[in-house]
Amino acid sequence: MVDITGKPEVYREARAEGFIKLKSSTIKAIEEGRVPKGDVVTVAKVAAINAVKMTSSLVILSHPIPITSIDVDVEFIGSSLKVSVTVRSESKTGVELEALVGVAAALINIFDMVKPLEKDEYGLYPESLIYDIRVVSKVKSSESKL
User: Domains of the chain: which residue ranges?
Assistant: First the structure.
């Protein structure tokens, strides 16, 4: 683990995003609230928030840091859902990992909730694809923005 003892606490912000491609019929079922496991968008948001808070347990060499804000957006884009997670903190280290872990957890929870709708005759998921998980913005400032 990297020693951050001497670093000052400064405002940190990171935004990550990722996508999951699904069958058009699955997208429609999510939009209409017809997924048997429940409200996919709400579960994805809660999963992201929970995962952000658990990052230091999941990413072994990351530091536990105080999270001051988590924003999660889920957007329908054609046959995909886009998940965006923005994390803020005043800390000695950045929050990119927290944002990435939040996105990944949200997307995996979406997949879990829609598996019965995505499964083909062989029990596989040929149209399901989680893709393009990445950090899209990062802020480090000595001025507090909170």
Answer: 10-140
